[in-house]
Write a structure and sequence with these properties.
311 residues; Binding-protein-dependent transport systems inner membrane component; MetI-like; flat; mainly alpha; 16 helices; transport
Length: 311
């Protein structure tokens, strides 16, 4: 073996030795300049966004005497949950002093049917536009896309007139219809792009087997569309739950959603300004979208990567 290695020319011998050595990219140092810059930037950005949340949490756990000391960054010396209890059950939101509890259930009654209705209709629209070409499909799609970019403020007064004429102004049902209609364009675009990215052979095979419009939709498209449904649910829940403009315009004080009641608590000019109650009320209002996102965050990323933003 040694004689064979000696008899090889210098060039070939060096090639053989290099080929028998370690392969693959050179390992990078953990504390390289690139990693320090990358993770340092991420940490700074994370702290920038987490700092207000930290201030809100620690303030909501303090009593008013401790808050008046002025150090908003210090942790509470004595933790109290009284601000949370008051924000939920006894804070004044105008003429009523029953906290955010009534607004929470109003928001649930608004969000759940709005999300179900808008996603159900938009998924069928997107499926039809992607797989069942009909006369005027392109025109219909263009109208939907244009509708997605019309400012909400332009449509407020005409919708008030329409809801008044059909007897739904000031009711939760009227607000559900408004949210469902305004969510339709962007959701239809998402579902249409997702269904377009799916293999066309599946649709053709189902047609050959005799499946019709609804058979293909329920047996093939729906089981394969969980990621895009999660994307649609997160977008709709976040948008509808956090909505203030439609809630204050199209409902009455007894049917105000949670965001409108939060505004009434925070901007109240009567009595002592209770910052701990305000912070607790703000966190309670934002918990539902946060929980929905953290529970289904992985599926959200999958839905976006699988075609939610593809043309």
């Amino acid at each position: 073996m040694a004689d064979l290695a000696v008899s090889l020319p210098a060039g070939k011998g060096s090639i053989g030795l290099e080929a028998s050595g370690p392969r693959g990219p050179k390992p990078r140092h953990v504390f390289s300049r690139r990693n320090i810059f990358l993770y340092g930037t991420l940490i700074v950005v994370a702290l920038y966004y987490l700092l207000p949340l930290y201030v809100m949490v620690v303030t909501s756990l303090k009593g008013m005497p401790e808050i008046r000391l002025g150090n908003i960054f210090s942790p509470p010396l004595e933790i109290t949950f009284d601000p949370w209890v008051k924000a939920w059950s006894s804070a004044c939101t105008g003429l009523n002093c029953d906290g955010l509890s009534r607004g929470f259930w109003n928001s649930v009654r608004i969000t759940v049917p709005s999300v179900v209705l808008s996603i159900a209709i938009a998924s069928v629209n997107g499926y039809a536009l992607a797989n069942w070409r009909f006369k005027g499909a392109d025109t219909f799609f263009v109208i939907l896309i244009v509708g997605a970019f019309i400012p909400y403020q332009v449509m407020i007064y005409p919708i008030v007139i329409i809801l008044r004429e059909i007897g739904l102004y000031g009711s939760l049902s009227g607000l559900v219809i408004v949210h469902s209609i305004f969510g339709m364009p962007i959701l239809t675009l998402l579902f249409r792009n997702y269904f377009t990215s799916m293999p066309e052979e599946l649709f053709r095979a189902a047609r050959v087997d005799g499946a019709g419009f609804w058979g293909i939709y329920f047996r093939i498209m729906l089981p394969m569309s969980l990621p895009i449904f999660v994307v649609a649910i997160i977008l709709q829940v976040t948008g509808i739950w956090n909505d203030f403009l439609f809630g204050v315009v199209y409902t009455r004080p007894d049917t105000y959603p949670m965001t409108v009641q939060l505004n009434n608590i925070v901007n109240s000019v009567q009595g002592v300004k209770e910052y701990n109650v305000n912070m607790a009320a703000t966190i309670l209002t934002g918990l539902v979208p946060l929980v929905v996102y953290f529970v289904s965050g992985k599926l959200f990323v999958r839905g976006i990567a699988a075609g939610a933003v593809k043309g």
